[in-house]
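Tokens as discussed.
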């Protein structure tokens, strides 16, 4: 089933590319997903295809969360000015998010009664009023999409929520049961952009280096991707930095990557555990203090430490039972280049020490949350006691 889901998402991107190539556009699109880089990339490509002239009078962009419906309607229904199409873009309106109250979605309320959600419960305070207004606006837009002329293209984009503690990407709040989402799917195309898997990321980065005839070994690329994480915006920035340094036809070495790449928090946590495994606790503590100086929240560091210890515990358990790298890859859903560093790191600990580390993390989290110990001090003790 998961494979079918990924195939459907890839198909959506392929359909957008085909629309752009043939210059035959649907009346409405929705771009959303946890990979903001791809949402921005396809947004830009579609805008340039529909309105190729820079500063076009046929392009209107709305960036507010409560856009003016009358203005949108007037823009969409207007004929293009000396062009084939006009385009209206609505960025991050939040109109697609779920507004369930008492089991009903604000966009779905009123279905079947012809009132398009106007009889919603008021709820309490300004937030309830704002949600009701959003529900009515979403319902009005859903009803309007059918009336978009063939000479207009409407594009909705929804960005992911803020990153969660631990550095995981936020999810995009899009309710596929809502009237607006269903209307976009009926009259146009909704495309979800998710992060590529590890193998696709490698191919993407190698393609960027290859375009400049830059050489990089597999091991150096592994180091680079471990430091950058899987956020495509960050990877793109760091890739361009290395391309500028190496120059066309140049070579990127591991020491270049380590010196020039801005490392994400997950990569620093990995390095911290390497130091702990090597009993270099002072160096691990120095790295922790560096993270605090960079304004990283202690709770985020603890969450990532706990997650990494849990991963290492699983890897060590597989190895102690006679498992291979292939078993580790299957259990964690990793590529070989991702599994090898984990296996190396897990071998620096015993199974018992990893179990104890996980228990200490859980205990420290409970003590910090109950106010029995300061989180910052607790993490220092945690590092020193490993």
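Sequence:
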């Amino acid at each position: 089933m998961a494979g079918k889901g990924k195939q459907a998402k890839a198909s959506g991107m392929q359909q957008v590319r085909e629309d752009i190539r043939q210059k035959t556009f649907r009346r409405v699109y929705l771009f959303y997903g946890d990979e903001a880089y791809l949402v921005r990339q396809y947004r830009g490509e579609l805008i340039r295809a529909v309105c190729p002239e820079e500063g076009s009078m046929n392009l209107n962009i709305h960036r507010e969360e409560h856009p003016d419906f009358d203005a949108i309607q007037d823009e969409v229904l207007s004929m293009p000015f000396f062009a084939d199409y006009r385009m209206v873009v609505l960025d991050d309106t939040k109109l697609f998010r779920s507004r369930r109250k008492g089991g009903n979605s604000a966009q779905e309320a009123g279905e079947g009664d012809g009132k398009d959600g106007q009889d919603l419960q008021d709820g309490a305070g300004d937030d309830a009023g704002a949600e009701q207004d959003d529900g009515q606006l979403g319902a009005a837009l859903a009803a309007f999409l059918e009336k978009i002329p063939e000479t207009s293209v409407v594009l909705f984009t929804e960005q992911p929520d803020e990153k969660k503690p631990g550095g995981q990407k936020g999810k995009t709040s899009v309710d596929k049961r809502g009237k607006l989402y269903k209307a976009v799917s009926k009259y146009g195309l909704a495309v979800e952009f998710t992060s590529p898997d590890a193998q696709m990321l490698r191919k993407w980065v190698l393609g960027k280096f290859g375009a400049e005839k830059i050489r990089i070994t597999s091991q150096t690329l592994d180091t680079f991707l471990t430091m950058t994480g899987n956020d495509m915006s960050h990877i793109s920035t760091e890739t361009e930095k290395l391309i500028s340094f190496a120059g066309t036809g140049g070579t990127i070495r591991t020491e270049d990557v380590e010196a020039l790449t801005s490392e994400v928090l997950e990569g620093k946590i990995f390095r911290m555990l390497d130091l702990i495994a090597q009993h270099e606790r002072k160096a691990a503590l120095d790295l922790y203090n560096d993270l605090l100086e960079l304004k990283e929240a202690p709770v985020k560091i603890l969450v990532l430490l706990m997650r990494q210890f849990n991963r290492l515990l699983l890897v060590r358990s597989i190895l102690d039972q006679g498992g291979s790298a292939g078993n580790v890859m299957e259990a964690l859903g990793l590529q070989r280049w991702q599994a090898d560093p984990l296996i190396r790191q897990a071998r620096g600990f015993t199974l018992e020490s990893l179990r104890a580390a996980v228990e200490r993390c859980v205990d420290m989290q409970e003590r910090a949350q109950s106010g029995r110990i300061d989180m910052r001090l607790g993490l220092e003790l945690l590092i020193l006691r490993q």
